[in-house]
Amino acid sequence: MLDCAIIGGGPAGLAAGLYATRGGLKSVALFERGMPGGQITQSSEIENYPGFFDHTKSGMDFMDGWQKQCFHFGLEHRMDEVLQIQKYGENFTIQIAGKDPVSAKSVIVCTGSTPKKIGIPGEDEFFGRGISTCATCDGFFYKNKEIAVIGGGDTALEEAYYLSNICSKVYIIHRRNEFRAAPSTIQKVQNKENIEIILDATAKEITGDNTGVSGILLESKNGNIIKLEVPGIFVFVGYNVNNNVLKSSDNSFLCDVNEEGQVIVNLKMHTSIEGLFAAGDIRMDAPKQVICAAGDGATAALEVISYIQERS
Predict the structure, then answer these.
(1) Entry pTM
(2) What are the per-10-residue average pLDDT scores of the chain (312 residues)?
(3) Known catalytic residue: 292?
(4) Catalytic choice (4, 110, 137, 167)
(5) 134 noted as active-site residue
(6) Rounded to an integer, what distance in angstroms lies between the CA atom of residue 10 and that of residue 66?
(7) Which CATH architecture has domain 4-115+239-311?
């Protein structure tokens, strides 16, 4: 039986594995079908992680050292697909695709969330080369440049306002005639001089070349085509929470989640189920930053160590 099963191999999962193994747990396995690293491995450049300021290195390079460090201290990587987490009595059962179930005394879920796509030509081609889903991560690359933000909710408007303090101009593109954000947030962006709002417009195509994004084509409600020449496009149209491993056959959840499907945790990453922890972007109110996810993972692992010790 495992002392701890970690589901998901992004920054939260790897940090949890590092702290759990260095903290003395003897049997810790990280379940990740591919190589660990998470969404950050798709980034072409990392600039906002303290102590890492090498512009020649990509997100893949950045996470490579994390993997080596974790495995050095005894973290086991199992390239298995976890289908479901169940709890019977004090222990958990991890259902694995094509294999026998695995038992664990504790579980840390770090499966994250995935930004939703618009689904237009050029989106996949230029992701990470002018298309971003993180203003905090990539906004500085467009300092004193014009950029476009796609979305109409609180996140889109808040990130647009953040970007307006870095970029020379921000276009907010929304396919409806009004925003879904809080009135105070709407007023804030409406009052910002370098934010231009484009409503009733649908993104049709993202254009570019070998150097990256060069612009975006929009179609207005009356059928007119609008072309914006911008080197950067930020997409904020929501997230898909990767919470399937917590669902039972009747679609109920093993632990408490909010209306968006994010796991409800306290400051110590405890869920509503004893011995089950959640860390990183799957949890409620996650800042969706590598450094924050890593902190979540470390916190969860320390709590697991205390939990295992209390059971001994």
Answers:
(1) 0.80
(2) 96 97 96 81 72 74 86 94 96 97 98 93 94 90 97 92 96 94 93 97 96 96 94 94 95 96 98 98 92 96 97 82
(3) no
(4) 137
(5) yes
(6) 10
(7) 3-Layer(bba) Sandwich (3.50)
